[in-house]
Amino acid sequence: MKKTIAVLLAGLAFSSAAAMAAPMVLTYYSDYPGNYAALTKYYSNFNAASVDFYNITKDGVITGNGADAPTNALSFLRSKKIAAYGCVSNVDGDWSADIAHAVSTTALNPSVANLVKFAQANGFAGINIDFEAVAQGDRNNFSNFIQALGRALHAKD
Protein backbone atom coordinates (compact mmCIF):
# COMPACT_ATOMS: atom_id res chain seq x y z
CA MET A 1 0.00 0.00 0.00
CA LYS A 2 1.36 3.36 -0.99
CA LYS A 3 2.01 5.58 1.98
CA THR A 4 1.00 9.19 1.64
CA ILE A 5 1.52 12.35 3.55
CA ALA A 6 -1.35 14.73 4.23
CA VAL A 7 -0.10 18.24 4.65
CA LEU A 8 -1.80 21.46 5.55
CA LEU A 9 0.63 24.32 5.83
CA ALA A 10 -0.58 27.69 6.90
CA GLY A 11 1.46 30.75 7.42
CA LEU A 12 3.69 31.15 4.37
CA ALA A 13 3.00 34.80 4.66
CA PHE A 14 4.30 38.18 3.79
CA SER A 15 5.61 39.30 7.18
CA SER A 16 4.67 42.53 8.88
CA ALA A 17 5.20 43.97 12.33
CA ALA A 18 1.44 43.83 13.03
CA ALA A 19 1.21 40.17 12.06
CA MET A 20 4.14 39.33 14.33
CA ALA A 21 2.70 41.20 17.32
CA ALA A 22 -0.19 38.83 18.06
CA PRO A 23 -0.54 35.08 17.66
CA MET A 24 -2.28 34.01 14.49
CA VAL A 25 -5.74 32.57 14.94
CA LEU A 26 -6.58 31.14 11.55
CA THR A 27 -10.05 30.16 10.41
CA TYR A 28 -10.88 28.14 7.34
CA TYR A 29 -13.47 29.47 4.90
CA SER A 30 -15.10 27.55 2.08
CA ASP A 31 -18.32 27.81 0.11
CA TYR A 32 -20.25 25.38 2.31
CA PRO A 33 -23.79 26.48 3.22
CA GLY A 34 -23.83 28.70 6.29
CA ASN A 35 -20.13 29.56 6.20
CA TYR A 36 -20.60 33.19 5.19
CA ALA A 37 -23.09 33.72 8.04
CA ALA A 38 -20.62 32.12 10.46
CA LEU A 39 -17.76 34.23 9.09
CA THR A 40 -19.66 37.47 9.65
CA LYS A 41 -20.93 36.39 13.07
CA TYR A 42 -17.69 35.05 14.58
CA TYR A 43 -15.05 37.22 12.89
CA SER A 44 -13.91 38.71 16.21
CA ASN A 45 -12.54 35.29 17.22
CA PHE A 46 -9.80 35.13 14.57
CA ASN A 47 -7.30 37.41 12.85
CA ALA A 48 -6.61 35.42 9.67
CA ALA A 49 -8.63 33.34 7.24
CA SER A 50 -7.64 30.64 4.78
CA VAL A 51 -10.01 31.00 1.83
CA ASP A 52 -10.48 27.61 0.16
CA PHE A 53 -11.40 28.11 -3.47
CA TYR A 54 -8.24 27.47 -5.47
CA ASN A 55 -6.41 24.55 -7.05
CA ILE A 56 -3.09 24.23 -8.85
CA THR A 57 -2.49 22.19 -12.00
CA LYS A 58 0.49 19.97 -12.93
CA ASP A 59 1.82 22.97 -14.86
CA GLY A 60 1.62 25.31 -11.87
CA VAL A 61 -1.46 27.21 -13.07
CA ILE A 62 -3.81 28.45 -10.34
CA THR A 63 -7.50 27.77 -11.03
CA GLY A 64 -10.77 28.03 -9.17
CA ASN A 65 -12.29 24.88 -7.72
CA GLY A 66 -15.61 25.17 -9.55
CA ALA A 67 -17.47 27.04 -6.81
CA ASP A 68 -18.46 30.67 -7.13
CA ALA A 69 -15.57 33.00 -6.36
CA PRO A 70 -15.68 34.02 -2.68
CA THR A 71 -15.85 37.75 -3.42
CA ASN A 72 -18.28 38.49 -0.58
CA ALA A 73 -16.07 36.73 1.98
CA LEU A 74 -12.91 38.43 0.72
CA SER A 75 -14.61 41.84 0.78
CA PHE A 76 -15.85 41.22 4.32
CA LEU A 77 -12.40 40.11 5.53
CA ARG A 78 -10.78 43.20 4.00
CA SER A 79 -13.39 45.48 5.56
CA LYS A 80 -12.51 44.03 8.98
CA LYS A 81 -8.75 44.16 8.25
CA ILE A 82 -8.47 40.39 8.66
CA ALA A 83 -5.59 38.81 6.75
CA ALA A 84 -6.76 36.49 3.98
CA TYR A 85 -4.66 33.60 2.72
CA GLY A 86 -5.35 31.90 -0.59
CA CYS A 87 -5.80 28.19 0.11
CA VAL A 88 -4.41 26.24 -2.85
CA SER A 89 -4.98 22.49 -3.16
CA ASN A 90 -3.68 19.67 -5.34
CA VAL A 91 -7.13 18.56 -6.44
CA ASP A 92 -8.17 17.40 -9.89
CA GLY A 93 -11.43 15.63 -9.11
CA ASP A 94 -9.66 14.13 -6.08
CA TRP A 95 -6.38 14.70 -4.24
CA SER A 96 -3.62 14.18 -6.76
CA ALA A 97 -0.17 12.83 -5.93
CA ASP A 98 0.74 13.53 -9.57
CA ILE A 99 0.02 17.25 -9.17
CA ALA A 100 1.99 17.38 -5.92
CA HIS A 101 4.91 15.66 -7.63
CA ALA A 102 4.89 17.91 -10.71
CA VAL A 103 4.52 21.14 -8.71
CA SER A 104 7.46 20.19 -6.52
CA THR A 105 9.72 18.97 -9.35
CA THR A 106 9.29 19.68 -13.07
CA ALA A 107 6.92 22.63 -12.59
CA LEU A 108 8.59 24.02 -9.44
CA ASN A 109 9.69 27.39 -10.85
CA PRO A 110 6.46 28.27 -12.67
CA SER A 111 4.41 27.06 -9.69
CA VAL A 112 6.28 29.29 -7.25
CA ALA A 113 6.18 32.27 -9.62
CA ASN A 114 2.44 31.81 -10.26
CA LEU A 115 1.65 31.44 -6.56
CA VAL A 116 3.51 34.67 -5.74
CA LYS A 117 1.73 36.53 -8.56
CA PHE A 118 -1.57 35.04 -7.41
CA ALA A 119 -1.03 36.23 -3.83
CA GLN A 120 -0.09 39.73 -4.99
CA ALA A 121 -2.92 40.04 -7.53
CA ASN A 122 -5.53 39.05 -4.94
CA GLY A 123 -4.12 41.04 -2.02
CA PHE A 124 -3.52 37.88 0.02
CA ALA A 125 -1.30 38.01 3.08
CA GLY A 126 0.14 34.70 1.92
CA ILE A 127 -0.62 31.25 0.61
CA ASN A 128 -2.01 28.25 2.51
CA ILE A 129 -0.77 25.13 0.73
CA ASP A 130 -3.33 22.37 1.31
CA PHE A 131 -1.77 19.34 -0.38
CA GLU A 132 -2.89 15.84 0.46
CA ALA A 133 -1.93 12.44 -0.96
CA VAL A 134 1.68 13.56 -1.37
CA ALA A 135 3.70 10.41 -2.09
CA GLN A 136 6.14 9.50 0.66
CA GLY A 137 8.95 9.50 -1.91
CA ASP A 138 8.21 13.17 -2.65
CA ARG A 139 8.87 14.31 0.90
CA ASN A 140 12.14 16.08 0.06
CA ASN A 141 10.73 17.51 -3.18
CA PHE A 142 7.69 18.85 -1.34
CA SER A 143 9.85 20.35 1.42
CA ASN A 144 11.98 22.05 -1.24
CA PHE A 145 8.83 23.43 -2.90
CA ILE A 146 7.60 24.89 0.41
CA GLN A 147 11.02 26.42 1.12
CA ALA A 148 11.23 27.94 -2.37
CA LEU A 149 7.72 29.34 -2.06
CA GLY A 150 8.46 30.77 1.38
CA ARG A 151 11.62 32.48 0.15
CA ALA A 152 9.80 33.91 -2.88
CA LEU A 153 6.88 35.23 -0.81
CA HIS A 154 9.15 36.78 1.80
CA ALA A 155 11.25 38.41 -0.93
CA LYS A 156 8.10 40.37 -1.86
CA ASP A 157 7.66 41.81 1.68
UniProtKB/TrEMBL annotation:
Keywords assigned: Signal
Entries under Gene3D superfamilies matching the protein: Glycosidases (3.20.20.80)
The keyword Transferase appears for this protein: no
Domain GH18: 23-157
InterPro entries: GH, Glyco_hydro18_cat
Signal peptide (from-to): 1-21
SUPFAM superfamilies per the UniProt record, alphabetical: (Trans)glycosidases
Entry keyword Signal: yes
Protein name, per record: GH18 domain-containing protein
